[in-house]
Amino acid sequence: MTTAPSADFVMERLLQEASREFPGWAFERDHSGWTATRGEIRLTRPSLAALRAILRVHRETRRR
């Protein structure tokens, strides 16, 4: 019988994925949600998924 991973384990894995996908960004969680910081830029969203989505848009905008 297998057991489901703990929520902390899953969050840690998602955070690792975000760090690999967006090198140079620092991620943290607080009562208002998730924040990504890089230099002077600070982006906050209610979930890590929403934060990663906005970072993808930000990355594409910077490439143009």
Walkthrough of the structure:
This protein has 64 residues and is an alpha+beta fold. It has a domain at 26-63. The chain is 48% helix and 25% strand. It has two helices and three strands. The chain has helices spanning 7-21, 48-63, and strands at residues 26-30, 33-38, 41-45. A three-stranded antiparallel beta sheet has the order 1-2-3, covered by helices on one side. A hairpin with a 2-residue loop joins strand 1 (26-30) and strand 2 (33-38). The protein is elongated and about 50 Å long. 8% of the residues are buried.
Number of strands: 3
Structural class: alpha+beta
End-to-end gap: 50 Å
> What fraction strand?
25-35%
Neighbour order of strands in the largest sheet: 1-2-3
> How many helical elements?
2
Mean pLDDT equals 90
Characterize the main sheet: 3 strands, antiparallel
User: What is the H/E order?
Assistant: HEEEH
Which segments are poorly predicted (pLDDT under 50) over 5 or more consecutive residues? none
Shape: elongated
- What is the gyration radius calculated from CA atoms? 13 Å
Helix share bin: 40-55%
